[in-house]
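Two quick folds needed for the group meeting slides. Do the first one here.
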Amino acid sequence: MKFLLSFLLLLTQFVCISQESERALIESGVEAMIANDHEKSLELLIRAKSLAEQNDNQEELFLAVNNIGANYYSMLDYGEAISNYLEAYDIAINHLEPTHEMSVLNNIAILYSKEKNFDKAEENFRKAYRIADKSKDIIKKGLYAINLGGVLNEKNDLITAQKFLKEALQIFETEPGMLIEAKLVLSSNHMLSGRYDESITLSFQLEPQFRTEEYIEHKISNYLTISKSYHGLGDFQKAMFYAEKALEDNINIENKINVYEQLSDLHIEQNNFQRALAIKDTLLIAQDRLNNIKNGRLFENNRVKFEVQNYQRELLYQQEKIKDQKKQYYILLIGSILIVIIIGWALRNSFVKSKQKKILHEKAEELTNLELDKEKTEKLLLEKQLKEKEALSLLQQEKLKNEIDFKNRKLSAKALYLSDRNSLVNNIIEDLDKIYHVRRDPELKSHIQNLKGLLKTDNEWDSFIKHFEEVNHGFINRLKTEYSLLNTNDIRFLSYIYMNLSVKEISHIFNITPEACRKRKERVSKKLGLTHGSYLYDYLYQMN
């Protein structure tokens, strides 16, 4: 009998999931599980579990653990399956709504069915069914009704099973996928009830829908039901045909055991004992393999743990209920006494409190006004001080600028004076050199040499540099440091530019034409990395 795991309803629960990455991992894990890629599915679900634990997200942790258990169930490792189901059950009852509890109860019930403990299976299926009914979750109610029908078939309680299956048929009337599940179990019910013709008719109606890979287990179960129905009718040839047809596909060990048992029974009834014995040997080998796969001991231990956990939960619930009743009684009694005392105390003190509140309010308002006035005064004083500091700073800056401009103008005037003087002296020397008797007179030649000495500008330049540096601190040193390509004349030229002398004035100082002066300006600008000479003064001003 094939039971429906709760992971089939996982996709309807994704609206509760908050973390996109965890949702994607769980969804991918379930898809891989349905595709029987259990290694990949477990890897994804374990990662989702780890993320859920880190984020303390109990909803996603439950989904991950529950579907890890579903993986182990599909792999026939029932010990690991129930271990994970118990963990999911613990999360559900301690942190989540009852709707989560019913999912894991359904899965645990399936494990009980696999261990042939049909009473416990029915008990847990019914618990899940009741929670679904109370929660008005119609889809899950229908799913658990199908599972109840299956386990009641196994217990031979066929009338009750039929009642649940008819309910499932009504619920899933518009759900083709789930309707198939209900009809498959109903076909088995017909066969067990001796209604072989009804069973065969229903099974043949279902057969065309089981031709895809995802319905392989349904197909095998359907063929077995048909085989057993023909067996019941005494048609051994057809019974044998459909039993052997069930072996044509790649089926799991449990299904093989069921088919081998059916074939063995058919051969025994036909007195074909040798063939029956051979099938029995194959059956024993398959059962041995199944027992090796199952972790029976771990399942039994965890099953007991589950029963103890249920018992402890019920006991705790009763104790909490009694405790709550006592607590409510004492709270009511103490509350009544306190209410009487509080009312009397309130009436006595209401007037006093009202008066005190009024006084306190007035004082608080007065204090608040004083604090506001103080803050306003401090703010105004601070603003005044800031404005005074700003004004003083501006005055100091303006004064310093004026002083520098004045000194630079003096330097400019001195430079222009020296230039005019040198020009005049040079003209006098040239005129004297043209007079013959002056050139022959040693005393006059001595005076001419003295005049020529005045034309040497080194000392004048050194004096100019000294005064310029006093006014413009570090300007020339900065030029020499940052621009090693500049020569002495370049630095002298830049100093005059910085003093804001015109091209005409600078050309006069250097005793060159204005055009030559402009070319020198362009050449020096390129040494400073400027594209045009018109930017030179602004650049020098910003640099200093």
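Then this one, please, same format:
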Amino acid sequence: MQFKEKVEDIRNLEGSLKRILLSGDAEADLEIPLDLLNLNMNKNDVIIINIDKNKDENYKNKYDIYMWGILYSKNNNISYISIGGLIFKIKIDLLYNVGDKLYIGIKFSS
């Protein structure tokens, strides 16, 4: 599943952790350590998010960020994915089951 999102806000959390608020194909909220990844993201940037059960073997050429997480909750059309303890909340009923391992690719749109 692919989503085109616009960065609405970036909030500082603990340490280098940021909370990215997104809107577009689906509202989303993503915790990510941008500074540790040496990535810069700004308000109004557009990103493409791809979520899939299958690992993309060509991920290094396709995405700026690639990670995996576990879909741990779905309710009221909101899906929650834990990425090593970081939370990715997306307001859409993903077509996957709780407990599924999901791969998340993020590409900064040019």
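Slide caption for protein two: The chain has a mean pLDDT of 94.
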